[in-house]
Amino acid sequence: MSKNNTLNLSRRRLLQLGGFGALGMNLASLLKANASTLCRSPEPIRSCILIFYYGGPSHLDTWDMKPSAPREVRGEFQSIATNVPGIRVCEHMPLSAKVVDRLAIVRSVHHPMTNHNAAAFAALSGRNPAKGDLELLANDRNDPPCLGSILSHELTDRGGLPTFVALPHVLRNVVKLPGQVAGFLGSAHDPFQVASDPNAVDFQLDELTLPNDVSTGRLDRRESLLRKVNDASTAKDFDAYRTRAVRLLHSPSVRRAFRLDGEDPKLRDRYGRTKLGQSTLLARRLVESGVRFVTVYDHEVNGQLANWDAHQDVFPRHKNDLIPPADRAFATLIDDLTDRGLLDSTLVIALGEFGRTPKINNTAGRDHWPFCYSAVLAGGGIRGGRVYGASDKLGAYPDLDPISPADLAATLFWRFGLDPSSEIVDLSGRPYRLAEGKPIRELFA
């Protein structure tokens, strides 16, 4: 049994256990029974929401503060108590501090990719790219798929809804950021991509709106003609992608799932009237409707001031622009899922592609740092109110229980009831395991 699973038995409890001998149950058998319980897999989850903070939030200024470190490491922010004794977070995260009893804060995530593109690929696919760090610019057709695309391939959809939805935009860093697509699994398993701002007054999905001069009957006739033309000339995955799009256009349940105007305005206010806030609310609507996996991308790649890539002025940017909407949206999501009875069946994962350097640079910022950073998980059977793993005294490297993106991927697939060691094959027939890591079973009851 690992140190994370060691029983904390009080003297009184040990005395109580002494009476079990007459019943044929000694301490050794009790420990064995407890270990068996810990290893038993919980019920598979129904859905997952992945919130991806593009640019790399500073773990040292959010979930893994170092108040005893030198000033050039600890920075300007103070820590505050949470609703779990002994766990403290950044003072600018007061709402998240109130839901820590339902969270597992993983403070030992790491990988070697210092470039945004390669690091995003690692975070969103659970694999280090074969091309290495600085050479990866965009996805190749034969790249391994992202997490949602694997789930699209392995799981059946529900009620005509797409299995995998990404919103509210495509991430681009000059080119489309790697790790957002199905790669060798084919476009049939790409996400249903929302490219509209859910916070806009006139928000609607153009993808689900037919032109005024096209009826559903006319659409069916066009589809039949296209099928005949493409039988001999179009790749199978494109045909599957088109078929899915037509099915979605026909589905009233799909259109209802994407409607935000029926939500209580007070709840919308709680999430925050921001692109991130309303996107997170839409993600909740989608998993409640039956979508399996939703990725919410926070911040577009429109220059450094538009995202978490704080190479300069890290403290005012985190304090004024970045942390408040993220804190509000995340904490409200946890409360909302709890209130609706969905948290146990919905896994929430929140992370960026890496963290920030322990030492503040000469422009009052922090640079890229993938060697140790934090991820936060909630729901899906998580035993909340705990910290898993630890960084060293400067937040530079894992000091206890290091975790890789591959381990997070394996945990996700395992919680969906899939075997992470099962295989898929690329276009050349080369086998890939669903995930190269191991599930973090200790996080779950």
Written account of the structure:
The chain has 445 residues and is an alpha/beta fold. It contains 13 helices and 18 strands. The strands form 6 sheets. Strands 8-5-9-1-10-13-4-14 form an 8-stranded mixed β-sheet, with helices on both faces. It is globular, with a radius of gyration of 23 Å. The relative contact order is 0.20.
Task: Please state the oligomeric state of the protein chains shown.
Answer: single chain
Strand percentage:
15-25%
Uncertain residue ranges: 1-39, 210-216, 218-234
Largest sheet data: 8 strands, mixed
Helix percentage range:
25-40%
The separation of the N and C termini measures 15 Å
What general form does the structure show? globular
Number of helices: 13
Number of strands: 18
* Strand neighbour order, sheet with most strands: 8-5-9-1-10-13-4-14
- Average pLDDT metric: 85
Radius of gyration: 23 Å
Structural class, by secondary structure, is alpha/beta
Task: Give the topology, please.
Blueprint: H1 11-17, H2 27-39, E1 47-53, H3 71-74, E2 79-81, E3 88-90, H4 94-97, E4 103-109, H5 116-125, H6 147-154, E5 164-167, E6 172-173, E7 175-176, E8 192-193, H7 216-230, H8 236-250, H9 252-257, H10 265-271, H11 275-289, E9 293-298, H12 314-339, E10 346-352, E11 355-356, E12 368-369, E13 373-379, E14 386-388, E15 390-391, E16 398-400, H13 405-415, E17 423-425, E18 431-433
Parallel strand pairs: 1-9, 1-10, 4-14, 5-8, 5-9
Antiparallel strand pairs: 2-3, 4-13, 6-7, 10-13, 11-12, 15-16, 17-18
Helix pairs in contact: 7-8, 11-12
